[in-house]
């Protein structure tokens, strides 16, 4: 199981949400969610991850930091975590992921500008 899928599964279990219900809320199939949680999906897109972060009210960095694990849920239903020794990502991999995210953000901005330009003509 990959670290991101593991963390998604643990968040879902802590909130006592079924795979079916969570998949419905994310607008994906239950089988796709199962594959993500079990680490059999090779790539997870940023839009999906943003939906997960919004749903559980966690920052994206939570999924990138391999040392953070779930500790408890506060009374306001926000997830807290503490440092521990859980599957760590190589630093270079994290840098590449963050760089890719920056590039995707820039491409989306360019795409939005082009769409606006086309709509205004």
Characteristics:
2 strands; globular; mainly alpha; 121 residues; 6 helices; 434 Repressor (Amino-terminal Domain); 2 domains
How does the SSE layout of this entry go?
Elements: H1 3-14, H2 19-26, H3 30-38, H4 46-56, H5 61-64, E1 68-73, E2 79-83, H6 91-120
Antiparallel strand pairs: 1-2
Helix pairs in contact: 1-3, 2-3
Order of helices and strands: HHHHHEEH
Number of strands: 2
**Strands across the major sheet, in which order?**
1-2
From the coordinates shown, what is the CATH architecture of the largest domain?
Orthogonal Bundle
Structural class: mainly alpha
Q: What's the CATH H-level superfamily name of the largest domain? A: lambda repressor-like DNA-binding domains
- The stretches of 5 or more residues where confidence is low (pLDDT under 50) are 69-87
Number of helices: 6
How large, in whole angstroms, is the Cα Rg?
16 Å
Number of domains: 2
Shape: globular
Mean pLDDT across the residues is: 77
Percentage of residues assigned to helices: 55-70%
CATH top level of the largest domain is Mainly Alpha
Describe the model.
There is one protein chain. The protein has 121 residues and is mainly α. Strand 1 and strand 2 form a beta hairpin. Helix 1 crosses helix 3 and helix 2 (19-26) packs across helix 3. 61% of the residues lie in helices and 9% in strands. Mean pLDDT is 77; it is low at 69-87. The radius of gyration is 16 Å and the shape is globular. It is built from six helices and two strands, in the order H-H-H-H-H-E-E-H. It folds into two domains: 3-89, lambda repressor-like DNA-binding domains (434 Repressor (Amino-terminal Domain)); 90-121. A two-stranded antiparallel sheet has the order 1-2.
């Amino acid at each position: 199981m990959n670290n991101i899928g593991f963390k998604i599964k643990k968040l879902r279990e802590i909130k006592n949400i079924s795979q079916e219900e969570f998949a419905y809320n994310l607008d994906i199939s239950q089988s796709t969610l199962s594959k993500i949680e079990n680490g059999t999906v090779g790539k997870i897109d940023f839009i999906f991850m943003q939906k997960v972060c919004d749903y559980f009210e966690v920052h994206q960095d939570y999924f990138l930091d391999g040392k953070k694990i779930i500790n408890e849920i506060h009374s306001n239903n926000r997830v807290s975590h503490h440092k521990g020794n859980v599957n760590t990502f190589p630093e270079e991999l994290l840098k590449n992921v963050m760089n890719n995210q920056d590039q995707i953000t820039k491409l989306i901005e360019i795409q939005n500008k082009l769409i606006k330009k086309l709509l205004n003509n």
